[in-house]
Design goal:
The chain is mainly β. The N and C termini lie far apart (43 Å).
Length: 274
Amino acid sequence: MEINSITKRLLFNTIRVDTVLEDGSEGSGTAFVVNHVHARGAHNFIVTNRHLVDSVRCGGLVFTQKRNGQPAFGQRFQLNIEDFSHAWFMHPDPEVDLAIIPLRPLEQSAHDQGVELYYHTIDSRLSLDTPAQHTLDALEEVLFVGYPSGVWDQVNLMPILRRGTTATPIALDFEGRREFLIDAAVYPGSSGSPVFVYQSDTMRPMQSASKKFLFAGVVAAVFFREEANHLVPVPVPANNHSMVMGSEMIDLGLVIKARAVIDLINIYLSKWLD
């Protein structure tokens, strides 16, 4: 398969996160790569949820290898990270479920082992800022990429593409936080999935191709019905074992807005580049 479209490139924005939890159970989730340009250059960061990497015994990031500038489908390379939980930079506000790690040292580690990593980055300049949010309608089509319930194409190392719609207007902060809801099937393993607003040619014929998918945010939680008329948002678990029996997932996912990701990267850069 030739990587010659925006949608095909989305398949390589994500990285599978495999973890072993403190109780010995195995988990999986999603991370993705963001390229952020700032006054002192450009840097690539891996982004995921705090709850996916916090209090994890050990973990690794699964990449596709690169051959002659192209993806080597099925050629897996797993970067195991020592002291996994402490390797991530957490958002200083514990209520913001985000964590990042710079890609450069990980890529150097792979290079030292004779491996090149194939990935595509999400350009932070294509993230939805406040002015862009106000140009969107209350109902927009969204696309997210990840590993729901740990499902993926293990032979070709491909994630799963899924669609849905916004369930609350992105221009508004849901419950006063920099979040919005999507009407989509969000399952364990979807945690950390990047979410894009999809704008089709028929709806916006003058849009350039680079604007079709705008980075909107990160899947962080799913709503459960614990009892009649009582709904609670719960961080998307890394595995099915942590789901509460008797609870019913409904197709509403909570998404942290892209702006929070950019802010976290800027906090990291201001701390470590000064």
